[in-house]
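Fill-in record for Protein flightless-1.
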Amino acid sequence: MANTGVLPFVRGVDFTSNDFSDGRFPDAVQLMTGVQWLKLDKTNLDQIPEEMGKLLKLEHLSLVRNNLERLYGELTDLACLRTLNVRHNKVKSSGIPADLFQLEELTTLDLSHNKLKEIPEGLERARSLLVLNLSHNQIESIPNALFMHLTDLLFLDLSSNQLETLPPQTRRLANLQTLVLNHNPLGHFQLRQLPSLMNLETLHMRNTQRTLNNIPTNLETLTNLNDLDLAQNSLPKVPDALYALPNLRRLNLSDNEITELSQAVEMWQRLEVLNLCRNKLTALPPSLCKITSLRRLYVNYNQLDFEGIPSGIGKLCNLEVFSAANNQLEMIPEGLCRCGSLKRLILTSNKLITLPDAIHLLTDLDALDLRNNPELIMPPKPTDMQRGAGIEFYNIDFSLQHQLRLAGANIPAPVTASGQSKDPIARKMRLRRGRRDQEEADQDQAKILKGMKDIAKDKNKHKNVEEMKAESLKPKRWDETLEKPPLDYSEFFDEDVGQIPGLTIWEIENFLPNQIEEVAHGKFYEGDCYIILKTFFDDTGSLSWSIYFWIGDKSTLDKKACAAIHAVNLRNYLGAQCRTIREEQSDESEEFLALFENDIAYIEGGRTASGFFTVEDMTYVTRLYRVHAAGCSSIHMEPVSVLVDSLDPRYVFVLDTGLKIFMWYGKKSKNTFKSKARLMAEKINKNERKNKADIVTEMPGDESSDFWRTIGLEDGLPPEDPIIEHVEENFIPFTPRLYQVKLGMGYLELPQVEVPHGKFENTLLNNRNVYILDCFTDVFVWFGKKSTRLVRAAAVKLSQELFTMISRPEYALVTRVQEGTETQIFKSKFTGWDEVIAVDFTRTAESVQKTGADLTKWARQQETKADLAALFTPRQPPMSPSEAQQLMEEWNEDLEAMESFVLEGKKFVRLPEEELGHFYSKDCYVFLCRYWVPIEEPDEGAAEGERENEHQEQVEDDYQCVVYFWQGREASNMGWLTFTFSLQKKFKSLFGEKLEVIRTHQQQENLKFMAHFKRKFVIHQGKRKEIPDPNLPPPVEFYHLRSNSSSLCTRLIQIKPDAAALNSAFCYILKVPLNKEEQTGIVYVWIGSKSNPEEARLVEEIAEEMFNNAWIGFQTLNEGEEPDNFFWVALGGRKPYDKDADFMNYTRLFRCSNEKGYFTVSEKCSDFCQDDLADDDIMILDSGENVFLWLGAKCSEVEIKLAFKSAQVYIQHLRVKQPERPRKLLLALKNKESRKFTKCFHGWGMHKKPPE
């Protein structure tokens, strides 16, 4: 026994799947005197262990799936026991002591799936029971006394027994909410007690011999009943009493003999699921169409024909599933195709001849099952399947040409339709996820391979090309090649730090801050350094901070430096304006001492380790592993005794001695295991031994003497006896169990982590927690980087107790594992770890030649991968106006409600309705959108009764909430942090899993978000409600309207007033203030001579809404009608400007990067913006006249060379594809871009600075 002293503080342990048979139950459990819950599921127990009698505080005990026949033992002494779960055992009625039911706290008892033939003696004494489950036994009768005393029951399950009746005292269960009586021969039971159960919500009586004679005629008192199951009975019709249940939501009448439904079905106004499968129905009543809440209707295996389905079924606006397989349908009513919410239509095995033409209008249908209808001929698809203005919908032609023809007006020439029809569902899904996928792909632009980062060189943005070229030829000092990495402060501090008033303290350990518990506040080790954060509300009610770093007299240099550095990092992370204050031991300021309620205390020594390396000799434990298969492509390393007898000729063995790793290949071992075991040894050597270990291959019959000595033969000679096969053929490795160590106020818990599909993935490990992985022969303790000191200490002691309380072989070990430095043996237990060895692809010929290597041979071996496919793909065609209009209408139809907020100060307030659609570049906005979402059903048809019954028991949600967080390009990240710790938490508590948060930046919005503003998307410069400087004249406001590739991407962006920015193909708004009052002035709407008429109409409409003021004049100017006084003066005088925008038909933006480990060229979406120019990459811009090579300030030399060659190849390709438009290759440097370059970007301005 480990005797660590922690067992009395353990509050709960999950021992599921351990083998405690044959007296293996740990004696140490009796020391857990404070345990409150204990799980012993699947532990092969055949009796209650004696040690249980010591657990006097035990409240919840689970003994599921064991071999228990008797519950006699120590359970009756557990006075605090509240929950006892012993389902799936072999317990008999005689094996349950009557004293067990005298426990006053017992509220939940589960004895299902046992061998009870009668109610256990004394059960009526358990008066405090709330939940009782006796299902799946052999009980024949219920004694009258039982329900006389158990009057507090809320849940009662007596299903799958042999009950013929229930006692009259059942009516005493006035609080009962759930009653399950399925699969009992209750043919003579009249249910007279049922009306007395007034709180009943769920009643299941499947297969209980129900007829019209043994169902009460009056059920009006059951006003709370919402779930009723009467399947598998002999009902010839629906009992009249059921129509008096107005609150029913789920009704299952399948597998009966019902021939007709009454018109009274309209009484079920809240019904959502109705299952009538496997009956004898020939028709559905027309009144069924009045149940507008109905979501699922199952009528499989009946005798319905076309006349049997009411024509008004289209009124069921919420109907999502209509399943009518195996009927006599020759046709379905057209009204069924008008159920706008329909997602699944199952018509398998009917006599269908054709379907209504409107079937093609159900574009949101997820499943249409028409199998086994041999004579079915599908109606032809309409020629135009778009929805909205100018297309056919519900057999009504809303096209502009058709409506003009009806009005007798002139009809414009029709637009040539696309030669190839498009799948509307696929197009809709592609467009919905296209922009989002692009955004996700571009979020990590700053990340590249470590090999790239190590040799990437900072480029001075002011240097010209000649200087850069000359510089690349000169050898650089080592310090010149260093690059400042981007800091992610979330690696150091938690997300919610500084958001709650109070004191937070970190200690410096291994160069990093580690938060300490509140009980340790005010106690400082002399050899350590600390960071202290004081969070409080200032006079305005906003959060403010004070940051101190405390230096111990005997602390090491690394701790002192890191305390100062991370104090500044904390300030930057919070966006605080305060300065960091240095406090030294014995010389603290009064303000610092006032932070603590009591006097601070100094403790001798240091608690944390220094980050400096200490040189010491490593000690290694010699271990022998047997290699087994694990899954399809991995291996399992099974530790065995380091003895000759452990060897088996059918297996590969790995003998690890630390600085020498022996690979022993059995004569009958598989080659795949040899190679995989060798790869494992290589990884161990590289990652754990710093390539200092020797890997020695040992072949049978030719082993070295070192191998035999290491394995236990002192003379170094082979064993005299041959090595034999001894491992069992059906050997199965031990299934690991993952425990999470939980620490509370004075208690410990050790629950098991639920492993989805039994597959261990590294994502199960949270860096805030500590875990224990029990592999029987190995026990690993994994420490997350952000786990606390007390949890780590508790985990170490718990692992020792867990190791000793279970009988293990002598060679078993406990190993501590730190996040980021996991051993290969530990990693092999999980999937998902990236084991690809990093390779530096950025080596140059010069660097290789300096090493003395053969350059020719090296060049032949290098096959650097490159992906330039994006350069040769056709340009994405622009979206047609009708298609854009259709998408806008569809997305706005799905939108049920939208609430908008804007950040004012340090909190979000509701955005006034008149400001909707207006954004400011220094502000942050939040939009809460509630969407109707179709319910996803399984792909298979609902032909099986059990499948349908499962469907109708599930409560599905039909909406989703999406929160869009919009951040201006000049706004700081404090808005995102404020949202994360305020609104997002509130929304998460309200909507749970239905909530999705999408963060979007200015001019990088997705199409769905843009569609909600209906092309009125205005972006202003500056900050909302910004107070102007009274000493300065009011500014001129100049706005540019432009659509990129689609009318959905229409934005009106404020730009710098400059006549050179005009273009005859666009429309602009110019506001010229008069005097010094911003409220007065004149607004010009400038319409270019080649501009789109629709955009001209739109810009006038927006201008009238923006400047709706009696003191502001309004004037629309066509190009060439500009007045000389105000218009040109406001724009800085007349200047030449572009007369066309042909470049809009050719612009493409490519990104050249090495972030995937090889050189790739990827294309940005056609709605690109200035912020898509990545600072650490190279961009290729095609303007139709020129191809620009744009260099980011932090791109590497290798990327420049490869991008230059890629641009040349692209130009050559264009000479073939577009010989009439030859391009020139030009260079563009950051902050020195020409007008030819910047005109391709809407709203070009100063380059974005990194947010604070």
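KEY FINDING: The longest helix spans residues 1197-1217.
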